């Protein structure tokens, strides 16, 4: 029970971090820095952090065996490199509301991948939970009107496609990384997969990271960049991957549905939105859905066979 509370607390914090990021990232892109430049700063910063810390807290821990090393490479490509490059490219071209709506595809991908790759059961409560939470998320997003649109000249359709591919990559990543997180120390896994992601991010973002006039960045933009490196990358990945030691990928995916609800609460707290009965009901749908997805399937009773 105590461990379950810690897992839900960790996943709630991750959802809160991601919910705030939709607006924070748009303050930086594309005026101050291109999407690939931001991804390079995020991934290289996290690679250095996890690389150093892993050598301190788990110096003898190493990912070994061909299967585990190939899995780690796949996780680095899907969950770090492609995931972040696609997300920031998409968010740069589309609106935060479009991005958050399309992100709700990820839990469905995660559940389907869990069934195919891990043999998890597609139970009725999980199906209902995904449906209820997805309904709540969609109602919150659609109920907010059109919201801030993409800037003139941006290709919204292409941006939406990038976000869809990002959600698919992240959904599969959650399933692939779980066996590694349960076998090795979290910092060992994160150090390896971020190193793989850096191999993609550095050549992709090298040109964009050299273009900005850093000396003229206002403090708010530096704060936004630090938020994306420390909170959005290091803290969020650490909490997500720690939670995979004790929870199913389906539960982590379901918490993506919580992000629109938290985005509304953040807007209300800043005086940019109002909390209505409809929004409260929509948020409740999401919480109910997450609860249903988090329920573990009951173990099948063992039937004794009489010996002849």
Automatic annotation (TrEMBL):
Membrane topology: Multi-pass membrane protein
Signal sequence coordinates: none
A GO CC annotation given for this chain: membrane
Ranges of residues in domain EamA: 10-141, 158-294
Keyword check for Secreted: no
InterPro entries: AA-Vitamin_Transporters, EamA_dom, EmrE-like
Transmembrane residue ranges: 7-24, 36-58, 70-91, 97-118, 127-145, 157-177, 189-209, 221-239, 251-270, 276-293
Keywords: Membrane, Transmembrane, Transmembrane helix
Localization: Membrane
Alphabetized SUPFAM superfamilies for the sequence: Multidrug resistance efflux transporter EmrE (SSF103481)
Protein name (database record): EamA domain-containing membrane protein RarD
Source organism of the structure: Hymenobacter mucosus
Taxon lineage: Bacteria, Pseudomonadati, Bacteroidota, Cytophagia, Cytophagales
């Amino acid at each position: 029970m105590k461990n379950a509370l810690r897992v839900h607390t960790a996943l709630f914090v991750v959802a809160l971090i991601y919910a705030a990021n939709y607006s924070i990232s748009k303050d930086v892109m594309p005026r101050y820095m291109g999407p690939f430049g931001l991804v390079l700063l995020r991934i290289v910063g996290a690679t250095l952090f996890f690389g150093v810390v892993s050598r301190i807290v788990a110096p003898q821990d190493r990912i070994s065996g061909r299967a585990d090393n190939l899995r780690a490479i796949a996780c680095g490509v899907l969950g770090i490199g492609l995931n972040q490059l696609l997300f920031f490219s998409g968010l740069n071209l589309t609106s935060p509301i479009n991005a958050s709506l399309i992100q709700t595809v990820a839990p469905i991908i995660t559940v389907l991948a869990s069934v195919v790759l891990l043999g998890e059961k597609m139970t009725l409560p999980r199906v209902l939970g995904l449906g209820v939470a997805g309904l709540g998320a969609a109602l919150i997003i659609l109920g907010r009107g059109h919201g801030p649109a993409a800037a003139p000249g941006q290709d919204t359709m292409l941006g939406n496609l990038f976000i869809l591919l990002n959600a698919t990559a992240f959904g599969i990543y959650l399933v692939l990384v779980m066996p590694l997180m349960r076998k090795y120390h979290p910092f060992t896994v994160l150090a390896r997969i971020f190193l793989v992601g850096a191999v993609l991010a550095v050549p992709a973002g090298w040109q964009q990271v050299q273009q900005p006039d850093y000396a003229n960045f206002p403090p708010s933009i530096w704060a936004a960049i630090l938020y994306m490196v420390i909170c959005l990358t290091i803290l969020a990945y650490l909490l997500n991957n720690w939670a995979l030691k004790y929870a199913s990928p389906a539960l982590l995916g379901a918490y993506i549905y919580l992000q629109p609800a938290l985005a509304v609460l953040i807007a209300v707290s800043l005086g940019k939105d109002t909390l209505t009965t409809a929004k409260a009901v929509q948020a409740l749908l999401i919480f109910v859905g997450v609860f249903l997805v988090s329920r573990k399937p009951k173990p099948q009773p063992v039937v004794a066979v009489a010996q002849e």
